[in-house]
Write a structure and sequence with these properties.
This protein has 160 residues and is α+β, with helices and mostly antiparallel strands. It contains five helices and nine strands; from the N terminus they run βααβββαβαβαβββ.
Amino acid sequence: MKLSHLTTRIMHPQQVAEVSPQLRALLQLADPHWDLISIYLFRSDLLLLEQNGIPVACLVLQDLGDREYEIKNIAVRADLQGNGLGSRLLREAIRRATAAGARTLLIRTGNSSIGQLYLYQKTGFRIRQIDTDFFIRNYPEPIWENGIRCRDRITLTMDL
Ligand code: ACO
């Protein structure tokens, strides 16, 4: 696939029925909990990279008010990861939040998401807050990644 030929689209889904199975699978790569996704998705902008109308990467950008925006979800189809699509979506989210007058852009992840922490810091986000044991308090099953138990929620922010 020629990655330069992917098209970018902004979508404003109003209801679950508008979410295709491919998009749902993508969103659940970043967050397995559909009940949580379905709360924030319909209050957010959805940035899509598509091939022939099929989403292959997505980013959910929510306006939190008070000139603060949050990237709630970012995902790239597994076979296309590592080709720069995630970085491309992050840059686009920064551009859109800046154009909308945002002061701060925020993204959250877990302590065990080493690659994501690398990518977000490389893009310019800085660690601002650690919510200790967040994932133990809020998720019924233990989460393991990179041989590390996911316990703490890390909030990174960027001043725009
Ligand atoms: N492990 C190791 N390195 C990584 C990872 C990872 N999981 N993800 C990105 N990187 C590195 C790449 O190696 C690359 O490094 P380089 O610039 O030095 O070569 C850099 O980060 C940029 O990578 P991209 O190719 O732009 O990232 P990609 O297209 O793979 O997208 C993403 C990154 C979205 C995290 C993707 O891997 C993915 O969908 N992962 C599964 C879902 C997920 O974890 N989403 C984030 C959850 S948190 C949230 O949604 C707020």
